[in-house]
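Aim 2 progress update. The chain analyzed this quarter is reproduced below.
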Amino acid sequence: MNELRQSTIKAEGINEKVVNGSAEKKSESAQSTKRKVLDEPAIWEYNFGLQDPNLPLPHGIVKDATAPETFTITEEQIQTLERDGVVHIKGVFDEEWVEYLRKATAYQVDQPHFWAFAGTASKLYDYIQRNVWQTNRSFASFYYHSAMGHVLAQCGRTDEIRISTDLLMVNPNKGFKWHQDNQNGPITWEEGLRFWITMDETPAEYGAPVYLKGSHFNDAVDEQAVFVDIESEGLQEYKNERLEFRTMPGDMLIWHPRTIHKVDGPSDGIWTSYRRVLGGTVAKAGSTYHDKRGSGGVLSDLGRHSLVDGDKLKSSYFPIVYPKFNKQEAIERDNGRVGRSPADIISKIGGLASKASSERFSSFFQVLGSRD
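Predicted structure tokens:
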């Protein structure tokens, strides 16, 4: 069905060309009509269950057999993350990997999954899907075989990396005001690392993430808060120290979950080019399961696993990707044993009905905006 949306765009004269490895959209009418590159799916276009684009892996990698690739970073980069709360690592993934991710993303957008419905229908993004690795095999294979796990293990000075939660994000329409991340899966801030993997060149005018340097050390922002007023008491030393990153295809951004940041979208909410990102949170070795029912954080842990508060975070729902993936965990994912059930979702989000939890969760909606 999405082919109809794309063909409509092409018929109106928008052509795609590759410039320095990134997709650029230009209108033959010289911007006389500004239009999105991607339209919202219709309700009947959503799919259920497992999906597999059957994409060949780069570099001759044999699916579920070849060991994960490696990418060595420097001690200086690790210390930058520890000091500033964020680090930009350039060129982690070459053109083959970038093209692989773009094709996996194109498939997902063309065949939207039901688990993307809420986020996409809310118009937060042109397309957004949490835990895309659970439903789309190409993203699972990327985690199993790419150097992502190795990079994050070095950054976290850890010998194990598991996926806590992930997000496929295409074009943030409204942008996000200053915030900190609390949708990190069932782990604490100190147990996790946030990551972005970018597939496109960031536009010069908007879309570049901005971080408050060193703000992961702050003790002024409540653990449950998402929205952050940077004029608040206790943030004076951070609010003017800003780090902006104009990422390119194949780059990674890695940050502490508590680091305060924002992303400005286009002022009118219309992206005329792609900003495709695979991001999320990984768990370091020794992480334990934290039941976050009663808080907004539960929304990144809606699986039907059997872990209870205090258990070691070891489950096919949170697959290990470094030092290498676990074949049994991969089999359970491929057999459809890793997923969500309506009963479990209702059970977990029921705690949000309390007044205190609702107030905390409403902080998320204050994050939405463009330039504030």
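Residues 1-32, 352-358 have pLDDT under 50 and may be disordered. The first helix runs from residue 2 to 11. These observations will guide the mutagenesis experiments scheduled for the next reporting period.
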